[in-house]
Description:
By secondary structure, this protein is of the alpha/beta class. The protein is built from seven helices and eleven strands. It has a single domain (2-187), classed as Rossmann fold (3-Layer(aba) Sandwich). β1, α1 and β2 form a beta-alpha-beta unit. α2 runs parallel beside α4.
Amino acid sequence: MDVAILLYEGFDELDAIGPYEVVRTAAALDADIDASLVTVDDERQVEASHGARIVPDARLADRDPGVVVVPGGGWNDRAAPGAWTECERGVVPDAAARAHEAGATVASVCTGAMLLAEAGLLDGRPATTHRTAMSDLRETEASVREARVVDDGDVLTAGGVTAGLDLALHLLERACGAETAAAVAGELEYERAI
Length: 194
């Protein structure tokens, strides 16, 4: 299974790179799963919220992923690049909705949930986000849960930042089994919170 992690200007580094490392570690342990860093636009480089510059592998439109992960970042700083700006622009929410319509499971980390809400993917569904954006999420059609990870089948959401590791390990367990998820958590020396 291919996991596409959707980058945009101002995404939070750990929201994306944490899940990427979980999946790539599983692939290195011979699990039938891999991750790629993708964008919606033809960007050769994406700058994250803390200044890391990432070279994406491909455009989302050129992949057929089983899972699309949408990171958060920049929601509360509405003047800067990030989730708020992408919500206003509408391109990332539209891409997430198209991927879901094409059969991909769509997941978010942190305020990436706000992009899924904008896409209509959280309407009537249980969801979570970073604690600082909970009130904003309550203003959408989502059924807000205070949880580290919320799994609603083909749409999953995770709380703030490090919850992306738990989300990725949960997805890995769903796709490859508990033994693989435990092996990856051990390799990363990460104690799962869920």
